[in-house]
Amino acid sequence: MNEVAAPSVFRPPPVTRALETAAAWLLGLLWVLPLVYAVWTAFHPAAYSTRFELGAPLTLQNFVNAWNAAPFARYFLNTTLLVTMVLAAQLVLGTLAAYALARFEFRGRELVFGLVLLQLMVMPDVLIVENYRTMNALGLRDTIVAIGLPYFASAFGIFLLRQTFRTVPKELDDAARVEGASALQVLLKVYVPLARPVYLAYALVSVSYHWNNFLWPLIVTNSVETRPLTVGLQVFSSTDQGVDWSIITAATLMTSAPLLVGFLLFQRQFVQSFMRAGIR
Amino acid sequence: MQRLRAQATPWLLLLPALALLALFTHWPALATVWDSFLSTPKRGRPAHFIGAGNYRGMVEDDVFWQALVNNVVYAIGTIPLSIALAIAMALWVDSRLKGRAFLRLAYFTPTVLPMIAVANIWLFFYTPQYGLLEQITHALGLASHNWLGNRHTVLGAIIVVAVWKEAGFFMIFYLAALQQIPPQLAEAAALEGASRAQYFRRVLFPLLMPTTLFVLINALINSVRMVDHLFVMTRGGPDNASTLLLYYIYQVGFSFWDTGYAAALTVVVLVALGAVAFFQLRVLDPRTHYQ
Question: Are B97 and A274 within 8 A, CB to CB?
Fold first, then answer.
């Protein structure tokens, strides 16, 4: 992102300026308040979960308790496998399809593109009843593959890569072909390297989406071996833990931590990626 | 031979993606429509054609109407507010405000967190007696209130969470758009004697229109899709006051296992999404090409 602020040619009176700064900050504080609150509760003994005293003792016990109360290690593994698998499939399938749509002339191309874009509106998230039936028929229910499979072909990814591939100069393509490269070689040697920033952008968006996805995994899994973190957290916090807020918030922070830490470390790339993914 | 190969190449490239799209998007969408005319299979009685039976049941189903109305309220409550906040956030982060690096971080953070996880935090926030909100209202001398337990406030409480979650996401798109606008426009407007409000209303806002429409479409889809927090915070209650369509589909399909009716409910959602698509293609797209 551009760090140079927009030039302020309009000079509002100092009072207006101060009020605006105050409003912006108030909103910012409101926005981080839930998170700050969660951090407070998770790092203090239960007795202080709603008593805000500066001298309150710090503790990691809530995290230890949460970690021991449910198979979170397994959930972390499941989610990691899931997001890796989904991303790998999306990148490969998306690259191939985007290349065909961007650089080949063939009958029915517009129709195919339309059929792809349809998924932007009719997302797998909504087709849970039928997709559950399909997974049952395929014998895939309660597997990690079943969680990811409906998302392998991503209209968003195909669209994004198609737009990028179209900006690659046709001359580069032609030159490679004259030298005898096959379509696949041209794709790998010319297009993919040029689209690297878009791949990074898409990867960040995809990983955070599937790390956070909940409804479909909830439906299609029902064992510890397949459940991703989101579903594991829900099972954990809705059962016998009942009211032990300190442990639940600790578990909540734990499940969000990798994304949150990743976001804090790579903040600029994150924001830039989302921006890049959003510009059409 | 050469020609044939050249024609086959794009189809081979498309094949894997198209096959999966067909299996998990096109086929289920069509199958949903077909299944909505079938009964739910029961022990010893396979699914059979019942015509509009599921739809007749839907018309008489109070919970369905409640979910539909709730969903409309949810959309109206979430979309304009989050878009307005997103614009304000983008303008602030893009200006010379003190601490805008922190603000950008603060606004955007909810976007990267799992909804199901932050719903736990918000649940605690709203909890009667010892939740944070109760402590604040108590300190101000206000009466105690069970925000999630009261049918008049529960939907509002859910909407607040949704706005909090997506405003920062939409901000990013506005930020991207603002950085594409040449600064000379503001200078010219200032030279002409326009005030900052005039510049925003007459120049900036119209230029941001394509972004607003893009965000609007996303927000409309989100108002159908974003139901995760219901699982943690309300389970659609009390008394179905916070049930949304997708959540109701989940209940009907996977708690009551009434798949025929769940298919009919899904058709309603598909029609709504189709209406959004139509609106985008026929009404919005022709108009946004002026940019």
Answer: no
Partners of residue A264 in chain B, C-beta under 8 Å = 105
Q: Give whole-number Cα distances, B18 to A82, A258, B54, B245, in Å.
A: 21, 33, 32, 29
Q: How far is CA A37 from the centre of its chain?
A: 24
Specify the number of domains making up chain B. Answer: 1
In this complex, do B221 and A123 lie within 8 Å of one another by their Cβ atoms?
yes
DSSP state of A150: G
A2–B179 CB contact, under 8 Å: yes
Q: Are B14 and A24 inside 8 Å of each other by CB? A: no
pLDDT tens digits for range A65-92:
888 888 999 999 999 999 999 999 999 9
* Helix/strand/coil percentages in chain B, nearest 5: 75, 0, 25
What pTM, to 2 d.p., does this model score?
0.90
Residue B278 falls within a domain, yes or no? yes
pLDDT at B11 over 90: yes
Residue B291 forms contact with A (CB below 8 Å): no
Residue range(s) of every CATH 1.10.3720.10 domain in chain A: 72-278
pLDDT value at residue B82: 96
**Is the ipTM, as predicted for this complex, more than 0.90?**
no
Please indicate, yes or no, if residue B144 is contained in any of the structural domains.
yes
A-proximal residues of B, 172-231, CB under 8 Å: 172-173, 175-176, 178-179, 183, 186-187, 189-190, 195-196, 199, 214, 221, 224-225, 227-228, 231
State the nearest Cα–Cα gap between B152 and chain A, in angstroms.
23
Sort B130 into a burial class: Cβ within 10 Å, 0-12 / 13-18 / 19+. middle
CB < 8 Å to B13, chain A: 96-97, 99-100, 104, 183
Q: What is the CATH number of domain A72-278?
A: 1.10.3720.10
- For residue B135, the enclosing domain spans 64-288
Domain assignment of residue B115, yes or no: yes
Among A271-275, B59-63, B154-158, B165-169, the range scoring the smallest mean pLDDT is A271-275
Residue type, B59: V
Cβ <8 Å between B18 and A149: no
Which of 172-191 (A) contact B at CB < 8 A?
Answer: 183
Chain A CB within 8 Å of residue B8 CB: no
CATH number at residue B197: 1.10.3720.10
Those residues whose C-beta lies under 8 Å from the C-beta of residue B146, and which sit 6 or more positions away, are: B128
pLDDT, one tens digit per residue, over B123-142 is: 888 888 777 788 888 888 78
Facing residue for B117 by CB, picked from A97, A112, A256: A256
Mutation for B interface: A8, A252, A255, A264, most B CBs within 10 A:
A252
Q: Collect the ranges in chain A with pLDDT lower than 50.
A: 1-5, 280
A230-242 CB burial, b ≥16 within 10 A, e <16: bbbbbebbeeebe
Taking the CA of residue A204 as centre, how many other CA atoms within 13 Å lie in the half-sphere pointing to its CB? 24
State whether A121 and B274 contact (CB < 8 Å): yes
